[in-house]
Amino acid sequence: MPKPIVLHIGEPIKYNQKFYEEEFLSHFDVVRNEDLDRESFINALKAEKYGKFSAIYRPHFQTGGEMGQWDDELISLLPSSVRIFASAGAGFNWADVDTLGRRKIWYANGAGASDEAVSDTALYMILSVFRNFTRAQLAARTADPEIFNTTHKLIATISANPRGHILGIIGLGNISKKLAYKAGVALGMEIHYYDVVRATEEEEKQLAVTFHKSLDSLLKVADCISLHTPLNRHTQDLINPRALSLMKPGSRVVNTARGEVVNEDALIAALESGHISAAGLDVHYHEPQVSPKLAKMENVTLTTHIGGGALNTRINFELNAMKNILAVVGPDGEFIGEPLTPVNARAFKEV
């Protein structure tokens, strides 16, 4: 009896070979995408080159994007047999997940696999923007004793301990819940948050967090904000000139979410004026291009979108995507359940 087909896009399995061979391949026939540009991929879908596949599997988020944006043009060409698109990575701005949901196709990401790594990165950024670690590191790397001594004296006059300051978390998801715990317990910060969906009373009590009904309210009290929202039409340029103007003079901005959530020109202007004293950015508006202006600022900590960049993350991204498909697709290609980490449940269930 033929097994359901899984269309594999991107690089092959790297870390979970035993699970792939013994568990995944016992349930599915896997075919690899051979059409490595958008036009040829579209033609392959039109010709049903890969058959009536039941799932799309993208185990490595840095590959498998050769067909470009998963918009209605691509999604409309998928066979009616498709039940789930299971991808590595936490972000999903490269796919129209609501359109997939309306087609009764689950989209599942790698949520959970990167929670520890990204929350650790945000914690590092918070320490850096309060303590000016980037400025100190740049000075030390000059190997110039005069610059060393000058910076040593300066840092003590412009830095602060995070303890007792208010951390404003925008988007209280799994990553930022870990950050709230870490920043509260380890750094002694007071945690406030804003989210369109409020956490339960039990969660708020457990994390010792204070809810704000509006973003404006949070921005006005925070000494440092940390962004943890997906990128969509509602969140692009969420932190814009108006939002920054509401923040306290000398406050700080940390972004480990998506670059386009923070209006880069507005942030640069606020840093240049001194209204924002420091920023920590793992993600960038025109990524992989980093703003040359931001790169020259000693009060800005910059990294190369490595928030989730730990081997543990990669291993679990790959594994969890397989588990999501196993949870959804039955032996005849039928639905047998929901994915472990669904992104588009609302759109899927509204149909």
UniProtKB/TrEMBL annotation:
Keywords: Oxidoreductase. SUPFAM superfamilies: Formate/glycerate dehydrogenase catalytic domain-like, NAD(P)-binding Rossmann-fold domains. The keyword Metal-binding does not apply. Gene3D superfamilies: NAD(P)-binding Rossmann-like Domain. Residues 124-307 form the D-isomer specific 2-hydroxyacid dehydrogenase NAD-binding domain. Pfam families: 2-Hacid_dh_C. The keyword Oxidoreductase applies. GO terms for cellular component: cytosol. It comes from the Eukaryota. GO terms for molecular function: glyoxylate reductase (NADPH) activity; hydroxypyruvate reductase [NAD(P)H] activity; NAD binding. PANTHER family: 2-HYDROXYACID DEHYDROGENASE-RELATED, D-ISOMER SPECIFIC 2-HYDROXYACID DEHYDROGENASE NAD-BINDING DOMAIN-CONTAINING PROTEIN-RELATED. This is D-isomer specific 2-hydroxyacid dehydrogenase NAD-binding domain-containing protein.
